[in-house]
Amino acid sequence: MRPHVGVMETTAQSLDQEACYRAVLTRDARFDGRFFGGVTSTGIYCRPVCPARTPRRENMIFYPSAAAAEEAGFRACLRCRPETAPDMGAWRGTSNTVSRALSLIEAGALDTADVETLAGRLGVGERQLRRLFRQHLGAAPVSVAQTRRVLLAKALIHETDLSMAQVALASGFGSVRRFNETFQHLYGRPPSALRRHSERVAGEAAVRLSLAYRPPYDWPAMLAALQARGDAVEAGLWSRRLEMTSDAAEGLVTVGAGKAGRLDVRVETSDLKALPGILARVRRVFDLSADPEAIARDLSADVALKPLVAARPGLRLPGDWIGDGDAAPSDRLPDDFDARLIGRAEHWRPWRAYGALHLRTAGIGADELMELADDQQAA
Fold first, then answer.
1. Cα(153)–Cα(192) distance, rounded to whole angstroms?
2. What is the pLDDT of residue 69?
3. Which of 20, 117, 216, 251 could disulfide-pair with 268, CB 3.0 to 4.6 Å?
4. 373: burial class by Cβ within 10 Å (0-12, 13-18, 19+)?
5. Architecture of domain 206-285
């Protein structure tokens, strides 16, 4: 399988190709998940931090998403494993429609329905949705869904001992045959060939995975916020019982701090088909798709917020287990937000919720904020 040159030229236009290559040369972790590099001489795409020898510049082209790279004909690197990159993309903070669509796709919206149905749920036309995906992700919605299935399947193959049939079920493939055919097409080998250890012993109850995020992350603050709202938190672990009515399965999900840049997730579920939706909800609850660098950059334009953000750069927004599908959580002001600050908060978009979070965490109200801003401007 060779990359499709015409597609490559079209979908890579939005990225500064030279800047991307400089990041690859230095293996700059700040760009991990922000783009992926396709190597035309091998047909493989990698993360910017891939430990393999850096290809020559003329042999690399960069994409805003893993889906764009796969749609162009590249296959995921088995060494740097793109499925382990932080969930990050060029669309973050730029398109509420794309953000909502990705959340639905991650939960399996295109596993059982088509793009027209997805567009209807979002209140837009199918053509408009396809255009937005091309603009922000460089790939079609169906390609994004396919990449999601493949990368989740790869994570399950590498990190669990599930059988291949169970992996197919848990990653959203409609059948084992489709699962095998997809991997054979992408990697030139069956999925079982990607596993480096024997399959699990029958009777293992839980699926264990690690989910990536972009540091810094204030884990104690997140646990405290979740506990304060009534979530089950004990000994540094968050847990939630799964219910058939809301989660399409029964069981238990537990989340704890893992290695740097990752959370450890343990899922006991009565139906592996529910796994993609469960993982999507874990990502939402723990705000794993946040971009601290972009948030700090934009909010620091407000002289009063700048020192607050600098002091607590790892604050995250606790998300709801079941999202309402409306405005992006990052831009949603809390119901009790002081009306006197709404005008000022317009300048915090698309991170208004984070601005409000920093004020609340610092214990600063409208009066104190205005006084603080006046003092800083006078100085």
1. 11
2. 93
3. 251
4. middle
5. 2-Layer Sandwich (3.30)
